[in-house]
Batch of 4 targets.
Target 1
Amino acid sequence: MRRASRSVGAVGALVLLLGGCDALSTDRTPERVRNGTSALDLTVTGRPTPGSLALTEHVLARLRARDAEGLAELAEEGGGTAQDAKRWVARWGGPARHPATADFGRGEKDASVEIRFAGERAALSFLLVPEDEGAPYDDRYVAVLREDR
């Protein structure tokens, strides 16, 4: 009987230990799958930084998902409104489902991106600006949605 109570106690302690451990319940889905960028068929030209490429992928994923609210969250304050995001989704949501080529222009702090979608005559052009103007070289950007052409 003593042996059984030790086993029950050990199992109880193990359950408490593992129950408090976040490792078993952690979502192990890769970030690229969760944020929608893994489904993109994107070719890159120019010299993007990791931050400018990541933001461009997020913009394309939001367009592809027709997620105007998510797109507006990627915009700089004053650089795009919910209406701008809705307009972008209406115009570029369909083309964003096709293969695309993103050409990154040179810029010291800001980055310009021109995206050409397969089967689309016009290109989507927009500007990426540093997220924090006080730290322009930290490689974190926001999109300027009002600048599409």
Target 2
Amino acid sequence: MSLTGWYGDWTVEPFELLLGANVDIPDDHSPRDALLSDNFGRAKARCDGEAANFLANSYTQDATRSVLPMSDVRDLLDGFTADQAERRGCTDLELPGPTVHPGAP
């Protein structure tokens, strides 16, 4: 399991590219959203007035599938994001919803 936080407005574009290239995003969502895919999850916040992006994944050694169910990954990502937001005084938390979006075709 890997949990990481990226801080600063520069982090927005890499996450949008990651989601846009790897997730089949329905029309009512965008790469700007906090989302849970079948391989990773993204949460968001604002820290010191700048974007903060949080990533969670749980891959097998050959990186072909998640080791943990994505509902567990989402719970861990939510807890990590809440902890980081409290420690850093972040606002505007956006956590992924319950839907697991499939990988891009």
Target 3
Amino acid sequence: MTTCAYRVARAATWLKAAFAVAVGMNLAEAVWDPDGAGWRAARAAASVLFAVALVAYVVLRVLRWRRARSERS
């Protein structure tokens, strides 16, 4: 596995983990109505984590695609 492919796979793993945390928090909120500053901070942290993981994954995929396309030319 190349370094670029390894980075994409690692970013995908982080994205899956962030998604699992977000889904878990949504399920917890559906069953139980948490409130307070701690919960709001956790929701904000999970949102930031997911956004960063998504952007990193997309950027790495685009860079890998561009590199593969330029190598074929």
Target 4
Amino acid sequence: MLIQPDKLRKLLILIFSALFLFLAIQIRFDMLFMHVIDNGASLVIQNLMPRGVQNWISLGGLFAHYWILVPAMVFVSSLLYEL
């Protein structure tokens, strides 16, 4: 196992739960910190990554449209059903 069952698991659960709650509150109330993270990620993606990686990341934006996402979900679920 990558993480020992008894030693770090409980600590990691607490850390990631607190991080999740912090970011969820930031998103819910549209706070400045989320805009800083978003602008920093956009800066890294647009200026520091190779063009091929940028193209793959931009393909993920297509999944914001339900008319693309629903057929993709049906396709993936049909593949997984066969397994």
